[in-house]
Amino acid sequence: MTPVASDSARDLDDTVARPPRSRVPAAGPGEDLEKTIPVRPTERPLPTLVEPPAPARAAAPVPALERLELAEVPDVPELPDNVWSLPMPERPRPFRLRLADGTLVPLDQPVYLGRKPSVPRIHPGGTPLLVKLDSPQRELSSTHLELSPVGGTIVASDARSTNGSVLRIPGAEPRTLIGGESAVVTPGTVIELGDGNLVEVLAPEPDAAPASTGANA
Description:
This protein has helices at about 5-15, 30-35, and strands at about 95-100, 105, 110-115, 130, 145-150, 155-160, 165-170, 175, 180-185, 190-195, 195-200. It is mostly beta strands. It has a domain at about 95-200: Tumour Suppressor Smad4 (Sandwich), CATH 2.60.200. The protein has a six-stranded antiparallel beta sheet with strand order 2-1-11-10-7-8, with no helix packed on it. A five-stranded mixed beta sheet has the order 4-3-5-6-9, with no helix packed on it. β1 (about 95-100) and β2 form a beta hairpin. The protein starts with 6 loop residues before the first helix and ends in a 15-residue tail after the last strand.
């Protein structure tokens, strides 16, 4: 009787034996360097970020300048070193006032007229001139009227008088100036203050006429 082989023995017999695989040894560092793909340098130069400056061009020749003829400049008068030695500009002649007795008063500053005039605390400026007038009947106030030159004109202002002043302006109806009122007057105006006191406004004094130098024929 033939002995029956066991299952384990049958499995081993059915197994096909194959030759063992050759074991590839691990690559060393030298072999890694050999497998590296070398990169060949390209022959085309890489572009640069900053372009080199262009070669300087030769400057164009500058044409010769033509000779300019300067215009003749008139001689400027020399000024003296001391400006205070220069003549002062002539001031315009002031208006004038003529009183009842013929007295002439220049109106180049504020003028206050009255029985006993005084300078008020508020006035146009400058050095006021006080003109005292007789008033037997006391019709004039202490400070009765103010006359002032303002910008080439004459301004008459009542000084809060009791009776006021009558203005007789050429070409206009008579007007009573009272209660602190003001009015522009012109040369030829006659102002009645009271007690026979009259004030006439005159134009500036005219320039003196040149003397005649005619020769006898």
